[in-house]
Amino acid sequence: MGRIESADVVVIGAGIIGAACAEALSAAGVRVIVVDRGAPASATTASGEGNVLVSDKEPGPQLELAVASRRRWPVLLDELRELIGPRLASVEWEVKGGLAVATTAEAVGPLAALTAAQRASGVEVEDLDADRARELEPHLTEQITAVSHFPDDAQLQPVLATAALLAALRARGGEIHSGVTVDGIATDRSGAVVGARTGADAIPCRAVVNACGPWAGHFSATIGAPIDVLPRRGMVLVTAPLPRFVGRKVYDAGYVDAVASPEADLRTSAVVESTAAGTVLIGSSRRRTAFDDDLDVAVLRCLARGAIGLFPKLAGVPVMRAYGGFRPYTPDRLPVIGEDPRMPGLWHATGHEGAGIGLAAATGRLLADLFTGREPVVDPGPFRVDRPEIALEA
Ligand SMILES: Cc1cc2nc3c(=O)[nH]c(=O)nc-3n(C[C@H](O)[C@H](O)[C@H](O)COP(=O)(O)OP(=O)(O)OC[C@H]3O[C@@H](n4cnc5c(N)ncnc54)[C@H](O)[C@@H]3O)c2cc1C
Questions:
Q1: Quick check: 257 pLDDT over 80?
Q2: Domain 98-151+230-329 is found in CATH 3.30.9.10
């Protein structure tokens, strides 16, 4: 690798979050270099099912960020299309809607309470009866006790979206370097960032963004400004391509509870959706582990059972493959977006757990707003780095 020139900002990590931050900074006229020890979008982002959801967020800061991001994505995609052309900006964006399905009497009350709170926060939700739900999704189970429809839930292809964001960065003169590990930060006498160290070299810059996904905790500890970001494992089953089997994102009403739970132990709840290629993705599991990438057959069995509970016909469908990834988890379940007061010029954009694809558009915008001193797209307070749940003792 030759010497990498200087930049205003070095973004560490070319997942969807690093790419979104780099794109938004470059749109604001900031000179950006993105580095990744692997290839762009080759880590957690490649595992994402691509949902851009408002339906699975409880009211609060994360829902506000999700609503801002859901609003931002189509505008951002228009901007990308304009800049890099329709082919590169094609990311399989589809506003397909989501269905939360209760199949037991006990699940009806919690679903009604959640949707009432979401409605009060401005999310569009329709209550459907079982017949109408099966009109929308003909293969849905007969065992329906309540269904809520979220017309604004959308989906895109995360790897294509990351590539499009990075193409925009390149079009504005930014650079992306694969196979480059950042192992330290160079600081001046006052302790402010002046470079990103890559072995014996350093890329001169006045700021770095830690967008290392589930490795953000480890990276931040290495440079002496630790934040509490940990891996939370998730696995997905992928069926053989089927003729249009499921049109929306369909999930068990218990999913929101599993998403919001901070539990370290295994949580599963059924989530079923199709991709543009016709495969059906079946999730979802959550377990806090170290970076152990074994595929646990008992968990996969659990996922299959849950999906068949929602769509009995899936019982006869072949599974083509299974894969897993590590979501970047934070103890208070909120991302970390902003400058680290312990080291001027160190920024973090991480900790999006199972929602980083959806939240990327607003995360990039918020980071660029804060970096350039613009009016922030959402209140940055809940995501700040020095909240006690996140900033650890060095
Ligand atoms: C099974 C599964 C399904 C999911 N489904 C969805 C979904 O439907 N919708 C949704 O919104 N979210 C979903 N998510 C979550 C989403 O995938 C993540 O929140 C998101 O991809 C995080 O992106 P990131 O850029 O922060 O991390 P990553 O994509 O992991 O990127 C971090 C990058 O940093 C690089 N890196 C780390 N350390 C260094 C270093 N020292 N030097 C250089 N490079 C470094 C890594 O190589 C990596 O490429 C899912 C996650 C999983 C596991």
A1: no
A2: yes
